[in-house]
Amino acid sequence: MHAEKQPTNSMYQLMKTPITPSPRASLKRAFASTAIACFAMASAFAQPRYAVTDLGVLPGCDTSVAVGINDRGDVAGYCLSGSDEVAVVWRNGQLINLGKLPKGHFAAAASINSSGVAVGDGDLGDNRPQVWVSTPAGLYNFFQAANSHALYITDTGVIGGNYIKGFSGNAWRAALWTQDPRDARKWQTITLPLIPGINSKSDSTTAQAFNQSGQAAGWAVNDIIGQHACFWNNDSAHSIVDLGTYQGDWSSIAWGMNDLGQVVGESHPPFGNRAIVWNNDAAHTATELPLLPGDNLGSASKINNLGHALGWSAFSLDGSFNKAGQQKLVLWRDGGVFDVQTVLDPATGAGWTISTTSAINNLGQIVGLGVHNGQNRAYLLTPMQ
After folding, report:
1. Is residue 160 part of a domain?
2. I need a surface site. Which of 111, 132, 136, 381 has the fewest CB within 10 A?
3. pLDDT tens across 215-265, in order?
4. Rounded to whole angstroms, how far apart are CA atoms 22 and 7?
5. Is residue 272 part of a domain?
């Protein structure tokens, strides 16, 4: 939609070879292992059911999109009127217009914490995205770069995202931002480490997920490994771990993670796509997630502390993307994999077609974009059973 946007999942669903991305808790580990093990169970599973709520749209707008959700059920996203885009949050039953940065053409909220503070990106009049945090006085641009994106804010106010300093020969870097305790107008930048290759000009990192403890996940690129999913610890050095690929695949990407340190994403055999979860054991053991019956391509994008994960599943006659059929949005939970469209409550889900699944909280609530009676609307799915 806007120039220099960060890569999104859809841009990589047809990936065949590693590439460099273009611009634009206190639960026990034993429970975490159990949650992953249940994905591999082969018995019959009860069909879950979710109530659907239309989150509505700002007056004068024709589309609303939900991007993130916290454990209170507050939702972050944006509303559109044609090409005009404004950041919004849904909180305590109200749709709140957060507006844009000064002189900005667009803004979108990506995450909201338990205190109601939201983060996202928007431009300053040049269509290049810049990070912002919401304040009582409006959106505040706390870090300037050629492009930057804020993806997550913890309940303690730590912000996670990515930035690129320049346009020629510069690479994306994953980062954490913390507010200066002595001056609320200033933010300190922690640039997360790379996985070094032979030629440092080929090194880059992109984070796609963060959690409440300060861990992060995404991918690293260099001229040795190509593109591999990676994990950043929350130690003092924010040490990086190469998550590798699944059993000899070509490349991999991490898209989501939970507060337990479990990571989900995809691994790429030649011309293929596997949905993967990397466990939170010392070896970050990778497990392939089951797909819908008959399908042979998939990816996982989000996971919560219950082990419920979101993603997609598809079938290809020859195992390549060139002849892949339509992707179905899927939910992994309680040992089963379910087509999201089939878990909607018949009463509240009438007239809905789910287009995206953007986030899932630790209560199992899911948000994204759907079509409701012909209108593009943000939705909230709430588990009924």
Report:
1. yes
2. 136
3. 999 999 999 999 999 999 999 999 999 999 999 899 999 999 999 999 999
4. 6
5. no
